[in-house]
Amino acid sequence: MAGRFRTPTGRYGGKTAEQRKAERRERFLDAALRLFGGPPGYRGTTVASLSEAAGLSTRQFYEEFRTLEDVLAALHLQVNDRAEEAVGAALAAARDLPLAERVTAIFRAYAGDVTADPCRIRITFVEIVGVSPRLEEQRLARRAHWVDLICAEATAAAARGDAAPRDYRLAAAAFIGSVNGLLHDWSAGWVDATLDEVVDELVRHLLGILRPQGWLPEAA
């Protein structure tokens, strides 16, 4: 009888239970991105319709999430994380460039990522708004994170003599609001401009904040 029975490996089809679970979760998120980010939207989606779109069962849905709101929360974080990765890579690549070129590279990376899929724009700027106090807290926390990033870059530029020394928090919050509003309106077709023109306008706006009229870089 020795060797007749093998110790279970927890694998099925060459994948562990953890890998299968991660794949199921990703299938739900991919399906939710399409449904929440387009017709019918978050408020028009049910657990049953999401499960059907993912090719999975409602039982499997509840093994991964408690509610559809949990799915939307995960998607919102996923979209922001992807954009932040794109910005981080652009920052590293443009570290030694002049300020105007560095700012342009950063915002081209951000705008290029969030506008690559209209569904991601809708998740970030439309579907997340007003769902619940919990998601409002998450949305504002992620916005504050982007404000912190702008403040850190502006403060570093000021330390190098590339920007006017000041407290940038209020200006950064106003600028992030402009970014969100303009990209949303552009994606909705309400702004007659190319994405490059939108980015150029945002860059001019930020450079005007960093270098107000009458101020010159120390190197000049």
Concise description?
The chain is mostly helical and 220 residues long.
Helix % is 55-70%
| Biggest sheet statistics | 2 strands, antiparallel
Oligomer: single chain
Shape: elongated
Strand content: under 5%
In N-to-C order, the SSE pattern is: EEHHHHHHHHH
Mean pLDDT comes to 89
| Count of alpha and pi helical runs | 9
Count of β-strands = 2
Structural class, judged by helices and strands?
mainly alpha
Distance between the amino and carboxyl termini: 87 Å
Radius of gyration: 22 Å
Q: Give the strand order of the largest sheet, numbering strands 1, 2, ... along the chain.
A: 1-2
Uncertain segments are: 1-9
List keywords for this structure.
220 residues, mainly alpha, two-stranded antiparallel ribbon, elongated
What does this structure look like?
This protein has a two-stranded antiparallel sheet. It is elongated, with a radius of gyration of 22 Å. 68% of the residues lie in helices and 2% in strands. With 220 residues, the protein is mainly alpha-helical. The longest helix is centred in the middle third of the chain and has 27 residues, at 133-159.
